[in-house]
């Protein structure tokens, strides 16, 4: 049974904030994520760490999927979350672990 893909967050807000989406696509994903000095895998780990530490739950969902697509393993994600518990706080780590669990389950479905 095929699932209909969830609408892209950018597509959901494009009409409301078109310049924000333009900058997201052209600068963040069109330039920053394409720079050769760091691999996309490393950028994903760095991004996950920042989002977890700041408690940015809504952004974390998409970036967990991106990290998996960029070669970060589920085990590495969980280890990152565990490590951050001591730096960003237990609540941020527990929340990130719960979100990761849901993202992993969604990819296995």
Main attributes of the structure:
disordered N terminus, globular, mainly alpha, AhpD-like, 2 domains, 109 residues, 6 helices
Class inferred from helices and paired strands: mainly alpha
Strand content: under 5%
Number of domains: 2
CATH H-tier superfamily of the largest domain: AhpD-like
The first-level CATH class of the largest domain is given as: Mainly Alpha
Give the C-alpha Rg.
Answer: 15 Å
Quaternary state of the chains: single chain
Residue-averaged pLDDT, rounded? 92
* Outline type: globular
CATH topology of the largest domain: AhpD-like
CATH architecture of the largest domain: Up-down Bundle
**Number of contiguous helices:** 6
User: Number of DSSP strands?
Assistant: 0
- The share of residues in helices is over 70%
Q: How can the largest sheet be summarized?
A: none
Low-confidence segments, ≥5 residues, pLDDT <50?
Answer: 1-5
Distance between the termini: 10 Å
H/E element string?
A: HHHHHH
Please characterize this protein's 3D structure.
By secondary structure, the protein is mostly helical. The protein folds into 2 domains: 28 residues, no CATH class; 70 residues, AhpD-like (Up-down Bundle). The N terminus is likely disordered. The relative contact order is 0.11. The longest helix is centred in the C-terminal third of the chain and has 19 residues. The radius of gyration is 15 Å and the shape is globular. It has 6 helices and no strands. The termini are close together.
